[in-house]
Design brief:
The structure is a single chain. The strands form two sheets. The protein has a five-stranded mixed sheet with strand order 2-4-5-7-6, covered by helices on one side. It is an alpha+beta fold. The chain is rod-shaped and about 105 Å long. Helix 2 packs parallel to helix 4 and helix 5 packs antiparallel against helix 6. The two termini are 40 Å apart. Helices cover 66% and strands 11% of the residues. It contains nine helices and seven strands; from the N terminus they run H-H-H-H-H-H-E-H-E-E-H-E-E-H-E-E. A hairpin with a 2-residue loop joins strand 6 and strand 7. It folds into two domains: 144 residues, no CATH class; 170 residues, Histidine kinase-like ATPase, C-terminal domain (Heat Shock Protein 90).
Amino acid sequence: MMVRKEKVRRIALYVLGVVVYYAWFQAFYNMVRFEDFFYYETFNDVMVGVGYNFLPILALFLFNTAIVFWITPRVRPEWLKAILDIVLSIGATTIVNLCFLGIQAWLFHRQGNVDWAGTLMSDFSILLINEVIFFIMHYRESKLREEQQRHLATRMQYDMLKTQVNPHFLFNSLNILYSLSSIDTEKSREFILNLTQMYRYILTQQQKQKVKVRDELEFLNAYIHVLSMRYPDSFFVNITDREKMEDKEIIPYSLQLLIENITKHNAIRASQPMHVEINIGPSQITISNPIYPKLNSNPNESTGTGLKYLTDLYTYYGKDFKTSTDNNIFAATIPYL
């Protein structure tokens, strides 16, 4: 019911806009041609004026609205859309005038006449009105999408930070550190440095919507190093062609979130080590890993929140974040922004 009311409201506003424009244009036309805003003497004169101007104006409104909002809304850049709209609009004016001449000949059995200059002037005015409305709506939609993207980014950054500092993560990290401190002092220092680097990256990148691949890889190296100590001789990551596309940009924490997803949903142990492949390609990054389901795991426990965040955020940029499972291999594809 609300949708129907909104449609009726928009149609009513559209018709009102056409009527108001017609009244203005007719008064302007009368003043230019007859030096009188309201030169009509009889009701029949009024109806003739409506037939000669209102119906063509309504047709031009419908044509231009269709051109601007339905035919060329996705044409980019904007200057190309504007040129295409003008060309199509002139074509629509020609069609309206020829139809009007044909109707005159059919009704009155004589050759009619059309004020081509007046029709073109009216057409350009109507096109300009539609273009202004279109760009205002496009601007508002862009601002709304930006606000939604900022909201998603804020939620993702908050959840990522919360994930890193949650008691379970800290407990495991401190346990590893405690074990290393009594066995290998050098590795303990290395562990602390990597853990510090991770938190520093989180704090410095939390306000950014895009990061360089090389910066994300530095953060990922620290995270992988921490995981390698958590899963000694059980967790391995191979990164190929990393030097080629390090200047490309992706969403912060994309790689780390996917690596964390692997540790969360797979059984990793020395007898069944996890080998992760990260391929830095020309247009995307692909992360793949074998699937080792955890024993007694409940598939309903996985909410897929991280993957949903990545899907929503990349969709905002017009990119497709994809995941697939084939031959017991899980793969995720991160497009460059």
